[in-house]
Amino acid sequence: MRLLIVGTLEGYITAAGKIAMKRGAKVSHTDSIDGALNALRTAAGADLVMIDVKLDIAAFIDSLKSERITIPVVACGIGTDAAAAVRAIRAGAKEYLPLPPNAELIAAVLEAVAEESHSIVCSDPAMLATLRLAEQVAPSDASVMITGESGTGKELMARFIHRKSRRANEPFVAVNCAAIPENLLESELFGHEKGAFTGAVARRLGKFEEANNGTLLLDELSEMHPRLQAKLLRAIQEKEIDRIGSSQPVKVNVRLIATSNRNLEAEVRSGNFREDLYFRLNVFSVAIPSLRERPADIPMIAEHFLRKYAEANGLGDKRLTEDALLMLKGHHWRGNVRELENTMHRAVLLSRGEEVGPEAIMLTSKMLAPEGSAQSSIPADSPVANPFAGPGGTVPAAQPAPQPSAPLVVPPPGALPTSYGPKGGRPGPYGMAANSGAAAAANAGGSGAGLGALIGRTVADVERDLILETLTHCLGNRTHAANILGISIRTLRNKLKQYGDEGRNVPAPGNDERATA
Ligand SMILES: Nc1ncnc2c1ncn2[C@@H]1O[C@H](COP(=O)(O)OP(=O)(O)OP(=O)(O)O)[C@@H](O)[C@H]1O
């Protein structure tokens, strides 16, 4: 969940931001409406805007509409100013939150948005069986290892488990171990005391303490340096952490979920990953099948993103033709759901009228992930490809897969009293801080128009241009560029390092990315 705070919130920015971060949100801030529009147009994006009621909310919402950016806007002001609240709601704000910020109210708004943006759309028996397994283990405090190819929905699954757990009302905190350099990751996880190292100007709590009583997701754990693996193991065993520069251990109560798109057993065998840590984290193993292994999900997920991006871009209803559907079903989805999402986003922008045919479907993965690269699949015969196998085979066997039935949208479990029963409404109207339609269309159109000009160039050459162009388009924001490209941030960083070493001009990280908590 990305929250953008706009304006001064009467001096309560820090308080509101802290509450939101405790609930797992990534918070960024800008002073003005122009700054907010810039952030939403370009790299940073957001899932929710909290705006000071004193700013011109009507003008802001008009600009969003005219640029076809769909995002929920919540106005914030001093509680007693009823007239301002009415004005804000009339201008199009979804809610009015009184200041000083109230933790429960902010949590409720974040949950409502998350409910829309973290739905798992599925109908394939393989995925339904995996979900049932995740639901079974969620209420326990056991550590869970979620494996699966890049972009299969591992983080989504981690959130699902958290929301189905007894910790659902406590923070969900995610750390991407691949995105943070090793020397910063230690302080990110365990925190530091003032003066612990140059630049440590104040005490900072780490993610373990932030996630206290809740769930900590260690994303792309396989990338963690062995020295930190040892410290992590101690934290798990002793249930306490040591902030850098402190000799006073701090007790923590955290449920750990780890993800990896590498075969961690192979990493253990090759000595890159500690076996004891692997067994500590892999008490229960949930392997998400790739899209290729759950073909029945493809039409549903494609339709889901078609609706989402048509709505985000202010376009009318769209539907896929049979030919387009066949094309999607037959594709080898390297970037998995994320690649399918980007494909449907492009299709929405390229198609005219209600029907989306094959001409609007631009499949790019072959250019992005050569065989054998870090992005490529966990082999189907790998132990981690089996959803039901934990270390030592201790995991209860899965129930027989249900028969395919009506398509299901699995909302976050907090919203779901029983199992993953069908949900009436259309999935996910929120959660798409889409770029402006015009910019994205120009982008998509550009890549389509120049295909002839690519002949004669090497794949590596084209890949480099695509990556650097996308990064420039995203004003240097690595996370956003990786999302658009359908590759992991680790792969993007490796590529950028290579281009830098080759003397290419690599855009610096964007301001918003640096500012994002
Ligand atoms: N079943 C699904 N229904 C709807 N959206 C999905 C589904 N699975 C994945 N997504 C979407 O695809 C994108 C990638 O999902 P997510 O980040 O959870 O994958 P991941 O496996 O953690 O990725 P990575 O390997 O890069 O860390 C997200 O935008 C997510 O919302």
UniProtKB/TrEMBL annotation:
InterPro entries per the UniProt record, alphabetical: AAA+_ATPase (IPR003593), AAA_lid_NorR (IPR058031), CheY-like_superfamily (IPR011006), Homeodomain-like_sf (IPR009057), HTH_Fis (IPR002197), P-loop_NTPase (IPR027417), Sig_transdc_resp-reg_receiver (IPR001789), Sigma_54_int (IPR002078)
Organism: Azospirillum picis
Domain of life: Bacteria
Residues bearing the modification 4-aspartylphosphate: D52
Region (Disordered): 372-423
Domain Response regulatory as annotated: residue spans: 2-114
GO molecular function, one term: DNA binding
Residues covered by the Sigma-54 factor interaction domain: 120-349
UniProt xrefs under SMART domains: AAA (SM00382)
Residue ranges with Pro residues bias: 399-415
Record protein name field: DNA-binding NtrC family response regulator
Keywords noted in UniProt: Activator, ATP-binding, DNA-binding, Nucleotide-binding, Phosphoprotein, Transcription, Transcription regulation, Two-component regulatory system
